[in-house]
Structures are given as C-alpha cells and as structure tokens.
Design a protein that fits this description.
The chain has no helices and five strands. It is mainly β. It has a single domain, classed as Antimicrobial Protein, Tachycitin, Chain A (Beta Complex), CATH 2.170.140.
Length: 80
Amino acid sequence: MSGRDYNGEPSCRSPEELQQSYRHFWDPTAYWHCGGDRDQPAQLRRCPANELFYDRERRCVKWKDWQWTEPQEPPTKPRK
C-alpha cells in the first residue's frame, strides 16, 4: 500500500488505538474509529452536517473551527 493510496485507516491492533478516532486522509467529513476490542477493523464514521473531523482534538468540530493539519499516520496500519 503506497503512502499516496493510504486513507489513514488504523488497524486497531495496539492498545493506544483502542477507543480512539483517527482522521480519514481524503475526506475531512469522515474519520476512523477503533472500538474496545483489539483486531476489530476500524469503523468509518461521519461527522454531523456542517462539521469536519479535527485530528488535533480527535473529534468533529464546526467547519469554521477546523484547520488543516498535516496527516499523521496512526500507530498501526491494516495488513493488506
């Protein structure tokens, strides 16, 4: 999986990823969420209308409060 094709999905394998949300690299209205169980695939979720996922706060914020940041890869990536 080349970096250019990668969308930010975590593998949810490491303890630090559990119960955390991660930015979707291509769609600021979407984000990845790891549940509480290791090795469960990340769930793609969407922000409410007029909100974008802000990775600095790891939550959806109103679009006027959102700022672009450089994408940061999660601790682990899915094995492809």
